Amino acid sequence: MTVLVERVDATAVVSLNRPERLNAIGGSLLKDLHAALTEAASDTDVRAIVLRGEGRAFCAGDDLHEFEAQAREPETHIAAIQQITRDLMLSDKIVIGAAHGYAVGGGFEWLLNCDLVVAADDLVAFFPEMRIGQFVTGAVTHLLPLAVGHQRAMELLVLGERQTAARLHALGLVNWVVPFDELRTKAMDVAAQVAERSAFSVAQLKRLLTTDLHQQIPRALDLEQRQTIDAIQGADAADGARRFRQRREI
Predict the structure, then answer these.
(1) Domain extents in the chain
(2) Residues 6 or more apart from 102 whose CB is under 8 A from it?
(3) Which of 144, 152, 158, 187 has its CA 20 to 30 A from that of 5?
């Protein structure tokens, strides 16, 4: 399975499980992750979800070794990516990201879709899309300017420079930075605290805080999907994916 699910008391721990590919996003992972998040969201005994990655990374973004297959059916691939954002942000459950190693492209976007984020001190996150002729997803075109302002969002998205855990914390994009060997413990502690709160009140709070987003996120996702499909089908994306793989940037 490309995604593992473990129940710990009232917490569903959802783990991306392609460690040999740094949990890069492929068709099977998208299908399994959607199923895992849907099941956790519908389980009344689950009070919080922890999203993490097995191996050396949280998620290295799109699996560029699958680029040709993705380019043949870009609508299906991008729709599946955007569905994960809906699963993370538009459910009633609090999602806690627990990130280490790399969070790149789509992986970084999913991290920003979480309600709370615990980062290991080795986390490196960046958006490579503008450099390799692709386009961002995960509604970050709407969410990131809200979080950090227009100019910082442009810096992060256009320049695509690597961001450390400390910088992400300073920008307000992660809540806690801990040593790697304390990452899971801290994430589970936060989840346990969430589980102690009123399930009704927490669900209502998340609904209220995301009321506007329920309209704005789908619009941003649809716009991003069209731009990403155009980018994938362009010559820049194929060449950029090849050069990114050859440089082995992660």
Answers:
(1) 3-182
(2) 22, 56, 57, 58, 59, 60, 123, 124, 125, 250
(3) 144
In whole angstroms, give the CA distance from residue 129 to residue 142.
Answer: 16
Report whether 231 contacts 133 (CB < 8 A): yes
- The CATH number of 3-182, from 3.40.50.720, 3.90.226.10, 3.40.640.10, 3.40.50.2000, is 3.90.226.10
Instruction: Kindly report the number of other CB atoms within 10 A of residue 13's CB atom.
Output: 22
Angle at 191 between CA 46 and CA 4, to 5 degrees: 60
* pTM over the 0.90 mark: yes
> For residue 244, which amino acid is it?
F
**Angle of the 213-232 helix axis to the 235-247 helix axis, nearest 10:** 90
Exposed/middle/buried for residue 128 (C-beta within 10 Å: 0-12, 13-18, 19+): buried
**Amino acid (1-letter code) at residue 27:** G
**pLDDT of 69 over the 90 cut:** no
- pLDDT tens per residue, range 180-238: 999 999 999 999 999 999 999 999 999 988 877 777 888 899 999 999 988 887 756 55
